[in-house]
Amino acid sequence: MMMPAEHMFLLLLINQQNRAITVLLDMLKSRGLLTGDDEQAFQFALMHNAPANAALFDDTKAKYLKLAKSLDLQTGLEHLPQFPEDTFRPS
Q1: Domain segments of the chain: what residues?
Q2: What is the DSSP string of 28-88?
């Protein structure tokens, strides 16, 4: 069972990610670089590039563990096996 501090940790990470995405999308829209259905195409591409998703997961996991360690949180994820690439393909 996760403790409240661990839930807050996850919430802060997700919030930071969502904020970064929102800022980037707003920047692209304000410069006229993101138009029409580009945002939908962007979201679709995010879900269907398994190699990129797998690499990003590995990077995210490393950053997560580093931040958790700095907060003295034990995650138990240090020994998590590497997921097969198919894990990151939509079903």
Answers
A1: 38-91
A2: HHHTT-S-TTHHHHHHHHHHH-HHHHHHHHHHHHHHHHHHHHHTT---SGGGPPPPPGGGG
